[in-house]
């Protein structure tokens, strides 16, 4: 017990002295080895000092009230510092509630000396360091994600096309188109080289070969009966290929409809800009500054210039309404988004009329598109960083910062990307490709029918023209004797109105009579 108590005494003294460190003028408290002790009679270092603190209204991270007080996660750190150093503080917020720069926002408040410290999770920008403000030690790296309304169906693809990726589908389409002509060419070459009865019996037309390939793909039989061994091998190869292909397709389709993970139409902010989705971010926040100065995020700046993005001031509730009604994408820090989703879920969970599947209205992208160090900030002429930074560094190293950031969040993720429902019912979106196949098939058959009718009409017109030409009279009226030409049949028969034709210099000699002759 004595040894245990002896080990606790230095720990107790260290704790006490951390709250009551020795001042420079109290040199008499140094021991013989030069180590600084502590004066327990001394008040805390910043006792009696009132610090002006500026913050942002960004619930639940930080907030300010008109009576000079504030709350939120940021003020949990401020309270730890106050208890350690014994100071008092008053809280204000900038009029435009923005990050800003030298001329506006929270940065302007510090730069002009209107406040000594900013108790808000501010992104660390090197262009502001010591030129506008002095940052504290980095508290943590903040990830930025995209918050959006949960889509009704997964973006993995249509139910019928999901089992294979685009490359496989293109190769299958190429195989179906090319296999029929290839079979025809091989059968023709075999028939041309061998010329036996088996080859002749196995030589099918191009249309028959193409229809066999398509029919086998649909698991249909065929009336073609190849007799040669080579043609049988060709047909059997295609059957085996189709059997394996359809087996893989059926298995993957079953797995997709029952076990597939939910995916979003986007993965990051670049997809938002590339696909021209509408997005929104906080006015005067980090995003507005970053896209203006950082070329890595120029795509967001171009999207904003084209009118797809906007910056606005909003509360969490109004922002969620904008996301749901206008179907916009919201760019913000991950810890703030998690608090927004959690608060919305708890609100809907208290309403018994809302089913469990309808309580997770919003979802965020699983991967961050940007990571930014966050910290507090001081006025450049303030000495607070000498006192606060060591304490904040200790909070970071012991994990207290991360704990406080997630203290109000549950241990499991609220409204994850994949809700993990036990049963998977087919929705109308899963059958969309089925409807499309039917519509395309009917439209194609109608187009082919119209083509057939046009060809039939064209042939009918040709036949009618030929029939009219067959009844056309000869030049001149030979029946009345006014014609200067003789009928063709009378010339062939050598007779004209019962008279004998003896020949003519222009028409040639008389020809023997034919069985038929033209009679007037």
End-to-end C-alpha gap? 150 Å
Q: What gross morphology would you assign?
A: elongated
The name of the CATH architecture of the domain at 166-259 is Orthogonal Bundle
Q: What fraction of residues sit in β-strands?
A: 5-15%
CATH topology of the domain at 166-259, anyone? Answer: Helix Hairpins
CATH class of the domain at 166-259 reads Mainly Alpha
Q: What's the mean pLDDT score?
A: 80
Supply Rg. Answer: 45 Å
Secondary structure class reads alpha/beta
> What is the makeup of the main sheet?
10 strands, mixed
Number of strands: 14
Low-confidence stretches: 1-16, 22-31, 33-37, 488-499, 513-520
Question: Share of helix among residues?
Answer: 40-55%
Taken in chain order, the helices and strands follow as HEEEHEHEEEHHHHHEHHEHEHEEHHHHEE
Tally of individual helices: 16
Description of the molecule:
The radius of gyration is 45 Å and the shape is elongated. Among the domains are: about 1-40, no CATH class; about 165-260, Helix Hairpins, CATH 1.10.287; about 430-470; about 475-520, no CATH class. Strands 1, 4, 5, 6, 7, 8, 9, 10, 11 and 12 form a ten-stranded mixed sheet that branches. A two-stranded antiparallel ribbon has the order 2-3. Strands 13-14 form a two-stranded antiparallel sheet. The protein is built from 16 helices and 14 strands. The protein has helices at about 1-20, 75-85, 105-110, 165-195, 195-200, 205-215, 230-260, 270-275, 285-295, 300-305, 315-325, 335-350, 385-395, 400-405, 430-470, 490-495, and strands at about 50-55, 65, 70, 90, 115-125, 135, 140-150, 280, 310, 330-335, 360-365, 370-380, 495, 500. The chain is about 45% helix and about 10% strand.
